[in-house]
Amino acid sequence: MVRNRRISAVPEEEYRRRTLEALADVDAGRVIDHQAVLAWVESLHGHLKNEVGEPE
């Protein structure tokens, strides 16, 4: 039987702690609107296009 092994530099207990912390944030409503994230990504994309000299 092949087991799925997660390759990570983060120890398992730290991974679990971070996951529980993230779930607590979601339960408390500490989230970012999806559309706001998409707008931020698009702004980065435009900035990067200008950095490498591609026309807008």
Write a concise keyword list for the protein shown above:
0% strand; mainly alpha; 56 residues
Give a brief description.
The chain is mainly α and 56 residues long. It has helices at residues 12-27, 34-51. It has a domain at 32-56.
Please tell me about this protein's structure:
The protein has 2 helices and no strands. The chain has 56 residues and is mainly α. It has a domain at 32-56. The longest helix has 18 residues, at 34-51. The chain starts with 11 loop residues before the first helix and ends in a 5-residue tail after the last helix.
Map the helices and strands.
Layout: H1 12-27, H2 34-51
Structural class: mainly alpha
Task: Quote the distance from N terminus to C terminus.
Answer: 52 Å
H/E series, N to C? HH
Mean pLDDT: 83
Radius of gyration from the alpha-carbon trace, in angstroms: 18 Å
